[in-house]
Amino acid sequence: MKTFLEYIRSMNESDTSDAFKREKDLSDHLKKHGAMDKDTEAAGSTGGNDFHIQHPTTGKKVAGKEIKSIRAEGEMKKSVGTGKFGSVALRHDPKKGWHIPEKTQRDKPEFTKQVHAAKVTSGGVTRSLLDHLNHHWGPSKEGVNHPGVTSDTTDMSPAHAYMQDHNVHVVHIGDRGTFRAGHSKTKDHHNTGLSELTGTGRFSVSSERKRTPEQQKAGTGMQINFRPHPNSVEKSHTDISTDEGVKKLKSNMSKKKK
Q: What's the predicted TM-score (pTM) here?
Protein backbone atom coordinates (compact mmCIF):
# COMPACT_ATOMS: atom_id res chain seq x y z
CA MET A 1 0.00 0.00 0.00
CA LYS A 2 1.31 3.46 -0.88
CA THR A 3 2.05 5.99 1.81
CA PHE A 4 0.19 9.29 1.57
CA LEU A 5 3.36 11.00 0.30
CA GLU A 6 3.87 8.30 -2.35
CA TYR A 7 0.25 8.74 -3.34
CA ILE A 8 0.75 12.51 -3.67
CA ARG A 9 3.83 11.99 -5.82
CA SER A 10 1.92 9.64 -8.12
CA MET A 11 -0.89 12.14 -8.72
CA ASN A 12 -0.75 14.40 -11.79
CA GLU A 13 -3.29 17.05 -12.72
CA SER A 14 -4.75 16.61 -16.21
CA ASP A 15 -3.28 18.90 -18.83
CA THR A 16 -4.67 22.38 -19.36
CA SER A 17 -6.63 21.56 -22.51
CA ASP A 18 -8.56 18.74 -20.78
CA ALA A 19 -9.28 20.94 -17.77
CA PHE A 20 -10.53 23.72 -20.01
CA LYS A 21 -12.81 21.28 -21.87
CA ARG A 22 -14.35 20.06 -18.61
CA GLU A 23 -14.95 23.63 -17.48
CA LYS A 24 -16.47 24.55 -20.84
CA ASP A 25 -18.72 21.49 -20.85
CA LEU A 26 -20.04 22.34 -17.38
CA SER A 27 -20.48 26.02 -18.30
CA ASP A 28 -22.38 25.11 -21.48
CA HIS A 29 -24.59 22.77 -19.45
CA LEU A 30 -25.38 25.49 -16.89
CA LYS A 31 -26.07 28.04 -19.64
CA LYS A 32 -28.48 25.62 -21.33
CA HIS A 33 -30.50 25.56 -18.11
CA GLY A 34 -30.31 29.32 -17.59
CA ALA A 35 -28.15 28.90 -14.51
CA MET A 36 -25.16 30.81 -15.87
CA ASP A 37 -24.85 34.07 -17.79
CA LYS A 38 -24.66 33.18 -21.49
CA ASP A 39 -22.22 36.01 -22.19
CA THR A 40 -19.62 34.71 -19.71
CA GLU A 41 -16.62 33.01 -21.28
CA ALA A 42 -15.23 29.75 -19.89
CA ALA A 43 -12.68 30.33 -17.12
CA GLY A 44 -9.75 29.18 -19.24
CA SER A 45 -10.25 32.24 -21.42
CA THR A 46 -10.52 34.80 -18.64
CA GLY A 47 -8.53 33.55 -15.68
CA GLY A 48 -11.62 34.03 -13.48
CA ASN A 49 -13.66 31.49 -11.54
CA ASP A 50 -14.41 28.20 -13.27
CA PHE A 51 -18.17 28.82 -13.40
CA HIS A 52 -20.96 30.64 -11.57
CA ILE A 53 -24.59 30.06 -10.69
CA GLN A 54 -26.79 33.00 -11.61
CA HIS A 55 -29.41 33.74 -8.96
CA PRO A 56 -32.97 33.37 -10.35
CA THR A 57 -33.86 36.94 -9.27
CA THR A 58 -31.24 38.42 -11.65
CA GLY A 59 -32.89 40.76 -14.14
CA LYS A 60 -36.11 40.92 -12.14
CA LYS A 61 -37.55 43.65 -9.95
CA VAL A 62 -37.67 43.03 -6.23
CA ALA A 63 -39.26 45.69 -4.03
CA GLY A 64 -39.27 48.00 -7.04
CA LYS A 65 -35.54 47.62 -7.73
CA GLU A 66 -34.00 45.63 -10.55
CA ILE A 67 -31.57 42.94 -9.46
CA LYS A 68 -28.77 43.27 -12.00
CA SER A 69 -26.59 40.33 -11.01
CA ILE A 70 -26.22 37.98 -8.06
CA ARG A 71 -23.80 35.12 -8.59
CA ALA A 72 -22.55 32.17 -6.60
CA GLU A 73 -19.00 31.82 -7.94
CA GLY A 74 -17.79 28.26 -8.41
CA GLU A 75 -14.64 26.14 -8.47
CA MET A 76 -14.35 22.87 -10.42
CA LYS A 77 -12.13 19.83 -9.79
CA LYS A 78 -11.85 16.73 -11.93
CA SER A 79 -11.87 14.41 -8.91
CA VAL A 80 -11.28 14.55 -5.18
CA GLY A 81 -8.13 12.46 -5.56
CA THR A 82 -6.36 14.45 -8.27
CA GLY A 83 -7.23 18.06 -7.52
CA LYS A 84 -5.12 20.41 -5.40
CA PHE A 85 -7.33 22.39 -3.02
CA GLY A 86 -4.89 25.22 -2.52
CA SER A 87 -1.17 25.78 -3.04
CA VAL A 88 1.48 28.38 -2.25
CA ALA A 89 5.10 28.85 -3.27
CA LEU A 90 7.80 28.32 -0.66
CA ARG A 91 11.13 30.13 -0.79
CA HIS A 92 14.29 30.25 1.30
CA ASP A 93 15.99 33.35 2.63
CA PRO A 94 19.11 33.47 4.87
CA LYS A 95 17.25 35.63 7.43
CA LYS A 96 13.69 34.28 7.15
CA GLY A 97 14.54 30.68 6.40
CA TRP A 98 11.82 28.76 4.54
CA HIS A 99 8.79 31.02 4.25
CA ILE A 100 5.85 32.04 2.08
CA PRO A 101 6.72 35.17 0.05
CA GLU A 102 4.96 38.36 1.17
CA LYS A 103 3.17 38.85 -2.17
CA THR A 104 1.76 35.33 -1.95
CA GLN A 105 0.60 36.01 1.59
CA ARG A 106 -1.22 39.12 0.38
CA ASP A 107 -2.79 37.30 -2.56
CA LYS A 108 -3.81 34.23 -0.54
CA PRO A 109 -4.32 35.46 3.03
CA GLU A 110 -6.78 32.79 4.25
CA PHE A 111 -4.84 29.86 2.83
CA THR A 112 -1.60 31.31 4.22
CA LYS A 113 -3.14 31.36 7.72
CA GLN A 114 -3.96 27.66 7.37
CA VAL A 115 -0.40 26.83 6.26
CA HIS A 116 1.01 28.71 9.24
CA ALA A 117 -1.32 26.77 11.55
CA ALA A 118 -0.42 23.35 10.10
CA LYS A 119 1.51 20.93 12.31
CA VAL A 120 3.98 18.10 11.74
CA THR A 121 4.60 15.42 14.36
CA SER A 122 7.90 13.60 13.91
CA GLY A 123 9.88 11.58 16.44
CA GLY A 124 7.38 12.46 19.14
CA VAL A 125 7.89 16.21 18.57
CA THR A 126 5.17 18.47 17.13
CA ARG A 127 6.22 21.62 15.32
CA SER A 128 4.52 24.00 12.92
CA LEU A 129 4.97 22.92 9.30
CA LEU A 130 7.36 25.77 8.50
CA ASP A 131 9.34 25.25 11.74
CA HIS A 132 9.65 21.57 10.84
CA LEU A 133 11.06 22.45 7.42
CA ASN A 134 13.53 24.94 8.82
CA HIS A 135 14.61 22.49 11.54
CA HIS A 136 15.16 19.54 9.20
CA TRP A 137 16.02 21.12 5.87
CA GLY A 138 18.16 24.12 6.68
CA PRO A 139 19.36 26.25 3.75
CA SER A 140 19.35 24.93 0.20
CA LYS A 141 22.36 23.19 -1.23
CA GLU A 142 23.11 23.39 -4.92
CA GLY A 143 21.89 20.33 -6.79
CA VAL A 144 20.36 18.73 -3.67
CA ASN A 145 16.61 18.03 -3.66
CA HIS A 146 14.85 18.32 -0.31
CA PRO A 147 12.82 15.31 0.85
CA GLY A 148 9.04 15.59 0.63
CA VAL A 149 7.09 16.36 3.81
CA THR A 150 3.46 15.88 4.78
CA SER A 151 1.62 17.56 7.65
CA ASP A 152 -0.54 15.96 10.32
CA THR A 153 -4.11 15.26 9.21
CA THR A 154 -6.52 18.16 9.45
CA ASP A 155 -10.12 18.89 8.47
CA MET A 156 -11.08 20.63 5.22
CA SER A 157 -10.53 24.15 6.56
CA PRO A 158 -7.51 24.72 4.24
CA ALA A 159 -9.64 23.83 1.19
CA HIS A 160 -12.34 26.27 2.28
CA ALA A 161 -9.71 28.95 2.94
CA TYR A 162 -8.33 28.46 -0.57
CA MET A 163 -11.81 28.97 -2.00
CA GLN A 164 -12.43 32.02 0.19
CA ASP A 165 -9.33 33.60 -1.33
CA HIS A 166 -10.91 32.97 -4.77
CA ASN A 167 -14.35 34.33 -3.79
CA VAL A 168 -15.91 30.88 -4.20
CA HIS A 169 -19.24 29.73 -2.74
CA VAL A 170 -19.77 26.45 -4.64
CA VAL A 171 -17.38 23.65 -5.58
CA HIS A 172 -18.11 20.92 -8.10
CA ILE A 173 -16.02 17.74 -7.93
CA GLY A 174 -16.40 15.35 -10.87
CA ASP A 175 -16.61 12.13 -8.83
CA ARG A 176 -18.36 13.55 -5.76
CA GLY A 177 -20.92 16.11 -6.96
CA THR A 178 -21.55 19.69 -5.88
CA PHE A 179 -21.01 21.25 -2.45
CA ARG A 180 -21.28 24.49 -0.51
CA ALA A 181 -17.77 25.78 0.16
CA GLY A 182 -15.53 28.80 0.74
CA HIS A 183 -17.56 31.84 1.74
CA SER A 184 -20.67 29.65 2.07
CA LYS A 185 -18.99 26.99 4.22
CA THR A 186 -20.98 27.73 7.36
CA LYS A 187 -23.82 29.84 5.96
CA ASP A 188 -25.70 29.10 2.74
CA HIS A 189 -25.58 32.69 1.44
CA HIS A 190 -27.25 31.83 -1.89
CA ASN A 191 -29.84 29.37 -0.54
CA THR A 192 -28.42 26.55 -2.67
CA GLY A 193 -29.49 23.75 -0.36
CA LEU A 194 -26.11 22.10 -0.95
CA SER A 195 -24.30 20.21 1.77
CA GLU A 196 -21.01 21.55 3.11
CA LEU A 197 -17.79 20.06 1.73
CA THR A 198 -16.34 18.00 4.59
CA GLY A 199 -13.56 15.48 5.01
CA THR A 200 -9.91 15.34 6.01
CA GLY A 201 -6.62 15.97 4.26
CA ARG A 202 -2.97 16.96 4.56
CA PHE A 203 -0.53 19.55 3.35
CA SER A 204 2.37 18.22 1.32
CA VAL A 205 5.62 19.98 0.48
CA SER A 206 7.48 19.04 -2.68
CA SER A 207 9.31 20.45 -5.68
CA GLU A 208 7.27 22.54 -8.08
CA ARG A 209 6.72 20.80 -11.40
CA LYS A 210 7.95 23.84 -13.32
CA ARG A 211 11.11 25.40 -11.93
CA THR A 212 13.46 27.93 -13.43
CA PRO A 213 17.01 26.70 -14.14
CA GLU A 214 18.18 28.79 -11.18
CA GLN A 215 15.63 27.19 -8.85
CA GLN A 216 16.50 23.73 -10.14
CA LYS A 217 20.18 24.38 -9.50
CA ALA A 218 19.66 25.76 -6.01
CA GLY A 219 16.79 23.46 -5.04
CA THR A 220 14.58 26.36 -3.99
CA GLY A 221 11.48 25.83 -6.13
CA MET A 222 9.24 24.28 -3.50
CA GLN A 223 5.46 24.34 -3.09
CA ILE A 224 2.97 23.61 -0.31
CA ASN A 225 -0.25 21.93 -1.50
CA PHE A 226 -3.38 20.76 0.29
CA ARG A 227 -5.12 17.59 -0.88
CA PRO A 228 -8.08 15.77 0.68
CA HIS A 229 -7.99 12.10 1.63
CA PRO A 230 -10.21 10.74 -1.17
CA ASN A 231 -12.12 8.24 1.01
CA SER A 232 -13.00 10.95 3.54
CA VAL A 233 -15.20 12.95 1.14
CA GLU A 234 -18.67 11.47 0.70
CA LYS A 235 -20.80 12.08 -2.38
CA SER A 236 -23.10 15.08 -2.40
CA HIS A 237 -26.86 14.71 -2.80
CA THR A 238 -26.70 17.16 -5.72
CA ASP A 239 -24.67 17.06 -8.95
CA ILE A 240 -25.07 20.17 -11.11
CA SER A 241 -23.53 18.42 -14.13
CA THR A 242 -26.83 16.53 -14.45
CA ASP A 243 -30.16 17.98 -15.61
CA GLU A 244 -31.82 16.94 -12.36
CA GLY A 245 -29.07 18.49 -10.24
CA VAL A 246 -29.04 21.93 -11.85
CA LYS A 247 -32.86 22.11 -11.79
CA LYS A 248 -32.82 21.20 -8.10
CA LEU A 249 -30.27 23.92 -7.37
CA LYS A 250 -32.23 26.59 -9.24
CA SER A 251 -35.40 25.56 -7.42
CA ASN A 252 -33.70 25.90 -4.04
CA MET A 253 -32.29 29.33 -4.89
CA SER A 254 -35.75 30.53 -5.97
CA LYS A 255 -37.22 29.82 -2.56
CA LYS A 256 -37.32 32.50 0.10
CA LYS A 257 -34.89 32.03 2.95
CA LYS A 258 -36.48 31.03 6.23
A: 0.85
